[in-house]
Amino acid sequence: MQTWEVKVIRCRRKTIGIRIDDGGGITVRAPLRTSEAEIRRVLDSKRTWIEKTLEKVSARAQVPKLSEGELEDLVKLGRKVIPARVAEWARQVGVTYGRVTVKKQKTLWGSCSAKGNLNFNCMLLRCPEDVMDYVIVHELCHRRELNHSPRFWAEVERILPEYRKPLKWLKTEGQALISRMP
């Protein structure tokens, strides 16, 4: 049975969480009083998921990275394409928004500030069109609900009844795409 090197961080949280970074590092965040035995039990119960995820991380490491120039070209193109799509979808959603920014982000596909400013990852341009539209609609729906409550998801579904398909794509394929960033 394989063992892994695991970094344990005890913090103020109620559950144990496991994260695997792009380098294959495993971090466990656990409530302050969690025993080592309980952490080992949770790691054992998640063994199949951990092994599959480590395989994916290893496979992603083999994919060539974009050059800085290619990434800058994506940002420039994104600054033309994404604001136009945001404007189209905002009319359909029926909301206003502030500034639209396209960035090189390694963890987020999009975000919406309390002031209504929207940020999007330039790698959206490498996603299928329905995935880009889902991320845009998701962030615009935060203009009505600045949370992920059932009301928020009902609003997303009202605009994009098939939103679960692009959401699933992001969960299964998205990290591989982001890992191509230099």
UniProtKB/TrEMBL annotation:
Stated name of the protein: Uncharacterized protein
